[in-house]
Amino acid sequence: MKAEIIAVGTELLLGQIANTNARFVSEQLALAGVGVYFHTVVGDNRGRLLSVLQTARQRSDLVILCGGLGPTEDDLTRETVAEFLGRPLELHPEALRAVEGYFSGLGRDMPENNRRQAMVIQGGNMIPNPRGTAPGQYVEAEGRRYVLLPGPPTELEPMVRESVIPLVQTWMGGNETIRSRVLRLYGIGESHLAERIADLLAAPDNPTLAPLAAEGEVTLRLTARAASEKEAWERIAPLEAELRRRLGRYIYGVDEETLEVAVGRVLQARGMTVATAESCTGGLLGEMITNVPGSSRYFVGGVISYSNDVKKAVLGVSGEILERLGAVSEPVAIQMAQGVAEHLGADWGIGITGIAGPDGGTETKPVGLVYIAVHHRNADSWVKEFRFRGDRRQVRIRAAKAALFALWRKLGAMDEGLSPAER
Known about the structure:
There is one protein chain. The chain folds into three domains: 2-172, MoaB/Mog-like domain (Molybdenum Cofactor Biosythetic Enzyme, Chain A), CATH 3.40.980.10; 177-254, Alpha-Beta Plaits (2-Layer Sandwich); 259-422, Maf protein (Alpha-Beta Complex). The chain is 41% helix and 24% strand. It has helices spanning 10-13, 20-31, 46-59, 77-85, 93-105, 153-172, 190-196, 198-201, 229-247, 259-270, 284-290, 308-313, 319-325, 330-344, 392-416; strands spanning 2-8, 35-42, 62-66, 89-91, 119-121, 125-127, 136-141, 144-149, 177-186, 208-213, 217-226, 251-254, 274-278, 299-304, 348-354, 369-376, 382-387. α2 packs parallel to α6, α3 (46-59) crosses α4 (77-85) and α10 runs parallel beside α15 (392-416). The longest helix has 25 residues, at 392-416. This is Putative competence-damage inducible protein. Residues 4-170 form the MoaB/Mog domain.
């Protein structure tokens, strides 16, 4: 199956928002074994969208359109695709109830122009959108399938996971199945990774092995084609085993298991809790942890200790150390981790202090210098100096991820009996 993605919205062409939907949809389709061959961005213009659709029909089996399903006149994806297919739009009772229910849940009457969001192309089917007012839809024509999705990522992403990918898997059918396994790694760069697995990357293409660099980490996608699901996984298994043998210390999760999910899974399994003390990351670590449903079972809270006064008054950091060594130092990170664990009654404490930039760096303490400490109430504290590259946002993200990975390694070290140096 050949797929392509059409993102609709003049705001994308103007650079006012980033086209994150195309990246997300491509990633999800790749995990399902579907190849995406083209990305197109087109403005809110009927004629140009018709032209893009004409091109897509000639080269793709699956066309996914993102955006342009709102209630205003410039939201024209639904109407333009209907015109392109030569089919009328019909009011879909279930879609109308969904839109009305959304406004009812807000305690408001539905504006009349929102009725257009309940219009479905003749012969099409609705895709539920419980998080917004614009249901999606899909329709088949001339052996091709067209999927229409709303633009806001908070609505589109769960719709893709919950509805679109299961549909695509049923459409693929046939005698061949495609399965993918994603290994998630932290603590090794893409170039070093490629050196370690050069022979595997050059091996025959079933299963295929593809590295992908993310923000501060790397993923490896293993994809196999076979006559059955069982055979596909059997093809993947030896390659995955060899990768784990070579790279096991860096592999923290698989498929959708992010660092925060992996850490949360282990904490919950052991009945342990964690608290965070953040300076340069400004609460980003706590946000990442609490993005995981059920994180209240193991995350007790955090302190954003941006000022030295808060570090001293709330976390018990020594004023003498702050004055002598400065806030960005190993002892301060340790005392932050110890203080937050004790103050909030957590098994683990994480302390992060550093210089995110772009200002504030010196020759001895440059921008990107970060100290991360992990403390357990029954063990010695661990601390490490990092020198992150990138802008302010990148330094903060990389620091938060490094903290999560440090905790993940420490949790594993408890069982593995590693020495302090190995941890």
